[in-house]
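Consider the tokenized backbone below.
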């Protein structure tokens, strides 16, 4: 009797707890209508238009963006083999990080910059904002009203990590791909079919191709199927009989998934034992590798950090509303659609958190932003379900307040460092917003007896308590839900716009227009390509960023040319190296590609100290970067070369600098002159003697400190049929340890056979 009474008491307690946690009975799933599809598309269009307005103002790029865009240009030129033979980078191996490159390549198949880059910006923004589309559809299929579905879509797509939409990185593609995985997984859980199973597999493959980190989602689909079958579909069966029933139901309802996952496990097993080369999880993850889980206490530290950023980035109270609803739905499901939603959201969150440990623990927030989709869906479902009753129940109200204290505890358990550089608005947007806006505004309250963080925590609790008190009044549940929904949207929109405005305005925006950055593509015919010539200073690390910028914004640069040593030219995939040599006496550039496919245009450093001059016409000098665009006179030839100076044009005291003028520069009517300048530094009273020799003639002059001597030295007239070159030597006797500068060397026409020297102060006033 005692045992029976104890068992009855335990049963009553379980029922009481289950009722306390359970949400109200919800409306059944609804079929989608044309209005739903139109509203989802409208949400995407509005959100994307805001993001595009910022993205088109971005004028800088990160190193990873350079790699993505170089590969995007590589694909159309090497299609279709480039789809599976993209040159590897440390971060672009395995099978991930490719989908975004494929999409970015589409505009380059039809356009150059600036059109191709602008279209890619629009594409990235539409993709990121497109996260709202599957979220809205999923919310409607679960049975939420249109306003609740729109709330979920907005909370998922309007986030501070929208700064990534202005970039050419993988996040604008991988973020909506994550949402599509949740949507297709839910669909096949609730209405199994071969078609829906296939869509779930396609969405999963697309997500993995979008970002290697999303490989963790592989386990979500099978675990969700087992969990949903066990807890919902077989809820009327005894627990001891559910395991075999689950296996049978999975095979009978999801045979395609069973076959796909079974084949995948066999391949991984074969790779693990060495039967198949390059097959296995390490082959799939590539550079990122498999997650190695640290001790539990360290995992908790990582999770606290990432969850705190997610909480702030999703409006803070979003988690406080969604957490109790999710726990209640999983503990005591009343509706299959909502149970499936809670299952996929929970597993999607856990998968990302585990993957973060191997990708970037405590790193950039963009690696952790994906569960914002799950938080948005859970919060919208909670508000919708609670609003079905005249007022919120005591158990739901208590759960919201308890969840709010959990949220505050998570936020308080981590640090919120101040802004270090303007790119923090891109890498740590939620943390930067919290520190610079919430904490700073809290300090404006002038409550000296309270810390800024305490004021923020109190404000969070007060908002949650106000919602609960208002929702407890009969007939006020829906107005309270509308008010808190408006508050959540306002906070998220403020975060998104604030970070976009700050990031674009302070770090990535401004500078020249797109057409100025694309000065090469706009000046060169569409069927022509351009070579970047790394000479003198242009072959050093001082020009690496300049070459990267030029090749990033100008897709017509398809060649990297150099003389013997490639120096620090980018030499990205898709560009062809050209190793050059100058033939004497013609000046012909040996190794230069001839024929219709070769470059007719050359991009050279806009430096007066270049060691080589080309025979051609300078079309323009960029006002943005120190580069000049030269159109060659075929065949490609050098007009002159200078030896004996360093990369900055300095020549050592007593050591001659030798200029070689080739036949191509001497040909033509009239006298030809070598023009150049000798420049001395300031601060010397003793004159600097210098000597210029050309052929058998010598000229001796003196330079004063801070003086520039512009010389015009006549060169012998090249007779018809002659094949000679002229060597011109310049020697300066400088004080010990000092150097003079030889600059602005050129060969032009002249009307006199005498040396002309014009001196002037240097630098010019």
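A designed sequence for it:
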């Amino acid at each position: 009797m005692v045992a029976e009474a104890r068992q009855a008491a335990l049963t009553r307690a379980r029922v009481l707890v289950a009722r306390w946690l359970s949400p109200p009975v919800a409306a059944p799933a609804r079929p989608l209508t044309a209005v739903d599809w139109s509203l989802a598309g409208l949400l995407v269009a509005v959100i994307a238009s805001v993001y595009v307005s910022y993205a088109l103002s971005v004028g800088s790029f990160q190193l990873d963006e350079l790699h993505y865009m170089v590969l995007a240009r590589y694909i159309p030129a090497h299609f279709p083999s480039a789809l599976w033979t993209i040159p590897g980078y440390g971060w672009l191996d395995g099978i991930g990080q490719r989908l975004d490159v494929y999409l970015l390549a589409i505009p380059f198949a039809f356009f150059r910059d600036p059109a191709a880059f602008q279209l890619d910006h629009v594409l990235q923004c539409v993709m990121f904002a497109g996260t709202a589309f599957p979220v809205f559809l999923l919310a409607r299929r679960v049975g939420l009203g249109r306003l609740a579905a729109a709330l979920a879509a907005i909370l998922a797509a309007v986030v501070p990590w929208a700064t990534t939409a202005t970039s050419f990185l993988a996040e604008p593609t991988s973020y909506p791909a994550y949402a599509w995985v949740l949507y297709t997984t839910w669909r096949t859980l609730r209405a199994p079919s071969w078609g829906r199973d296939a869509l779930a597999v396609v969405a999963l493959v697309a997500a993995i191709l979008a970002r290697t980190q999303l490989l963790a989602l592989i386990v979500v689909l099978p675990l969700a199927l087992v969990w949903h079958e066990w807890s919902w579909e077989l809820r009327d069966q005894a627990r001891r009989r559910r395991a075999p029933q689950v296996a049978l139901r999975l095979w009978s309802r999801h045979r395609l998934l069973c076959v796909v996952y079974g084949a995948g496990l066999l391949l991984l097993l074969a790779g693990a034992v060495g039967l198949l080369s390059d097959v296995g999880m390490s082959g799939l993850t590539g550079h990122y590798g498999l997650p190695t889980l640290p001790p539990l206490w360290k995992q908790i530290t990582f999770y606290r950090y990432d969850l705190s950023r997610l909480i702030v980035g999703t409006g803070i109270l979003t988690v406080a509303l969604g957490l109790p609803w999710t726990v209640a739905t999983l503990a005591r499901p009343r509706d299959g659609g909502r149970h499936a939603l809670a299952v996929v959201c929970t597993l999607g969150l856990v998968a990302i958190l585990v993957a973060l440990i191997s990708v970037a623990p405590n790193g950039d927030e963009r690696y952790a932003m994906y569960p914002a989709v799950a938080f948005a869906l859970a919060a919208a479902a909670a508000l919708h379900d609670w609003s079905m009753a005249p007022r919120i129940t005591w158990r739901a109200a208590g759960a919201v307040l308890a969840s709010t204290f959990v949220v505050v505890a998570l936020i308080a358990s981590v640090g919120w460092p101040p802004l270090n550089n303007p790119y923090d608005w891109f890498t740590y947007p939620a943390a930067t917003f919290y520190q610079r806006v919430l904490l700073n505004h809290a300090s404006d309250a002038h409550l000296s007896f309270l810390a800024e963080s305490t004021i923020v925590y109190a404000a969070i609790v007060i908002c949650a308590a106000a919602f609960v008190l208002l929702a407890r009044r009969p007939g006020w549940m829906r107005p309270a839900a509308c008010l808190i929904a408006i508050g959540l949207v306002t906070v998220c929109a403020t975060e998104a716009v604030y970070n976009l405005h700050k990031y674009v305005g302070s770090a990535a925006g401004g500078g020249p227009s797109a057409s100025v950055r694309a000065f090469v593509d706009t000046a060169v015919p569409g069927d022509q390509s351009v070579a970047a010539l790394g000479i003198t200073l242009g072959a050093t690390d001082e020009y690496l960023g300049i070459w990267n910028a030029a090749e990033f914004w100008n897709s017509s640069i398809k060649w990297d040319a150099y003389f013997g040593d490639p120096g620090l030219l980018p030499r990205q995939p898709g560009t062809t190296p050209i190793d050059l040599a100058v033939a004497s006496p013609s000046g012909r550039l040996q190794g230069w590609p001839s024929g219709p496919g070769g470059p007719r245009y050359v991009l050279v450093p806009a430096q007066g100290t270049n060691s080589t001059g080309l025979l051609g016409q300078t079309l323009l000098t960029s006002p943005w970067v120190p580069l000049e665009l030269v159109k060659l006179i075929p065949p490609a030839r050098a007009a002159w070369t200078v030896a004996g100076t360093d990369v900055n044009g300095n020549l050592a005291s007593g050591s001659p600098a030798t200029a070689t003028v080739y036949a191509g520069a001497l040909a033509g009517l009239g006298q030809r002159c070598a023009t150049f300048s000798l420049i001395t530094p300031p601060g010397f009273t003793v004159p600097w003697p210098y000597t210029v020799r050309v052929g058998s003639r010598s000229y001796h002059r003196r330079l004063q400190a801070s003086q520039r001597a512009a010389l015009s030295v006549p060169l012998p007239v090249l007779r018809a049929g002659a094949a000679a070159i002229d060597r011109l030597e310049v020697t300066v006797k400088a004080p010990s340890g000092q150097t003079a500068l030889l600059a602005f060397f050129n060969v032009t026409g002249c009307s006199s056979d005498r040396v002309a020297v014009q001196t002037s102060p240097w630098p010019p006033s």
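Confidence is low (pLDDT under 50) at residues 15-28.
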